Amino acid sequence: CVASQAFTASTAFAAKPLTIGFSQVGAESEWRSANTASIKDAAKKANVNLKFADAQQQQSNQVKAIRSFIAQRVDVIAFSPVVETGWETVLREAKNAKIPVILTDRAVKVSDPSLYVSFIGSDFVEEGRRAGRWLVDYAKKNPGKQLNIVELQGTTGAAPANDRKKGFAEVIAADPKLKIVRSQTGDFTRAKGKEVMEAFLKSEGKNINVLYAHNDDMAIGAIQAIEEAGLKPGKDIVIVSIDGVRGAFEAMMQGKLNVTIECNPLLGPTLMQTAQAVVAGKPVAQRITVNEGVFPAEVAAKEFPNRKY
Ligand code: AHR
């Protein structure tokens, strides 16, 4: 009788679905939509009760969402931080409430690494380096004059903006012909990418040889601006961007984008597995990275049918 009671209790416990509170950055890009879809889909498949909150690119909304998850006593809090800094207080509140926190996609800068249990996402510095390596190689194959680069940065203070800038700058420093002449945020959106590119074209005229965009959406917005200025994107201005979304492959097949560096948004299944492991008391890695490639325009048509986002 005791054994059967114990069995019933543990079965009931195992059947209780896990509740995860997830605070998403927003819906700023094609990449982000794929990331949200991956998380929602994986939660459904894993029978996880997902409480999803869209922060609309505002850190204050994320802090509010995390506090509400703490008040609701969710099993795990996961979030993709809009910016890197300013998280100590709210993460300590989660830790004091004994709710484990998992970071996805973007990292935070905190003095106490025990404020989160795991970070699942890309190596953004390496993505920036890959973009830089492609350009250094391009410059080698096309020797001659100085190449003036304009840079569309991601959201100010966001890990991918900081890291992609750093990795790219580190690699192009090896070639004195490569020079960043303008650099400004386009907030990871198409609309802002277009607007800032228009301003770059106005101030620099035909002096721009290369555009480095921290994501495909800003590159796609900038392509519009370049065409409206009567120039040929991908030819008059070489374009290097990051993410590897379908829109970038389409632009490459049209000859308007030269290369995209992959950033994998399909983090949902790993998030669910990690959350389940944490709640079951199993050890998890503090850093989980994902495998990513580099796709130049020459391979776009062949790769396009294989793309999952
Ligand atoms: O944090 C990942 C970045 O955020 C993606 O590169 C970008 O498209 C998104 O907005």
TrEMBL record:
A single Gene Ontology MF term assigned here is: carbohydrate binding
Q: Record keywords: Transmembrane helix included?
A: no
Principal cellular location given in the protein's record: other
Note whether Signal occurs among the keywords.
Answer: yes
Under Pfam families, the record lists: Peripla_BP_4
The Periplasmic binding protein domain sits at 20-282
Keywords for the protein's UniProt record, in alphabetical order = Signal
Q: Which compartment or compartments is the protein found in?
A: Cell envelope
Gene Ontology terms: cellular component = cell envelope
Q: What family does the entry list?
A: Belongs to the bacterial solute-binding protein 2 family.
What protein name is recorded for this chain? ABC transporter substrate-binding protein
Annotated organism of origin = Massilia forsythiae
